[in-house]
Known about the structure:
By secondary structure, this protein is an alpha/beta fold. It has one domain: TIM Barrel (Alpha-Beta Barrel). 35% of the residues lie in helices and 15% in strands. The chain is built from 9 helices and 10 strands. The strands form 2 sheets. A 7-stranded parallel β-barrel has the order 1-4-5-7-8-9-10. The protein has a two-stranded antiparallel ribbon with strand order 2-3. The chain is globular.
Amino acid sequence: MPGFPLVLQLIIAFLCPCLTGFSQTTNSFYQFVQDQSRRQYSRVPHEVLAFYYPWYGQPPGRDPWHGYDTNQHEIFGTQRYPVKGPYSSHDVAVIDWQIDQAKAHGITGFVVCWWEASAWEAWNNESLSLVLAEAEKKDFKVAIEWAIAPGEGQGQIDRAVETLSYAVQHFGRHKAYLKVDGKPVIFPYNDVMLHVPVAAWPKIIEGVRARAGDFIVMADGHQDHYAYLFDGIHSYSLDGWPWELQIHLQTGRTSRLGVPVLPERREDCPTLEPDQLPHRQPRLRLPQSLQI
C-alpha cells in the first residue's frame, strides 16, 4: 500500500498522548502495528451472528429470573415471560430449540457472553460447552464475547493473557467454534475496550499467541486506531446503526474484518417490541461488505 509507513507514523503519533509510558515502548508498539498490517485472511466465512446469554437457571441468589409463577406465567426478572418458561441454560433441549429458531431466521452463529475460567463462572463455562456441543451437531457456529478485564497495569495484562489463553485452548479449538483461516475469533466487549489501555493490547495479544496459538481479535466499536491494532471490528449495540463503521469498511481504508452482530434479546433488560427488532425479521439481509 503506497505511503503506508507514513500512515503508520501518523497513527502512532495520534496514539502517543493516550499511552502511559509510551516512550519506553514505542519501538515494540510500532513493530506490533506493522506486523498486524501484514496479516491477511483468505478463508473468511460469511456469518450472521447474534449475542447469546448463558446464565439462566442458576441456583437462587444468582438466577436472573428473580422468581416466577408458572401458573400465572409471571416472571419477575424479565420484561416478558419466556416462550419456554423460566428455562435453564443447561437444558440441552432448550439449546437445541434456540439454535433451530436462530437458523430458521438466517442466523448462523451465537456470540456467547463469557468472563473467565473461575469457580464463580463455572455455570457459564458449562453453558458454553453445552452450546458448542449442540452447535456442532447442527452446523452452527459459536464464538466468545469476552466481557471483563479486571485489574490494572501488569496484573491486568497477566490475567488477560491467562484468561484468553484458556479460552483459545479450551473452547477455540472446538469444531463448532468460529474461525478465520483456522484461527479462533474472540469479541472483546465494550467494557473491556474501555478498561484496557491501548498500550496493553500488544502485550496481551502477543502473550496469548505465544502461550495458546494465534487467534483473531474483533474490537468492539469503531475508533480509527482499532483497525491498526486489531484484526477487525464489530459493534455490540446497533442502536443508531454506526454508519461510520459501514463507510469505514466499504471504502477499503483497511483490509480488516468487519462483523455486524444482531441486537441481543436479553430477557432481563427492557427491549423493543417484537416487530421493531431486526432479528425478528426472517432472513435479515446485511450489506455484503459488512458480513464476515
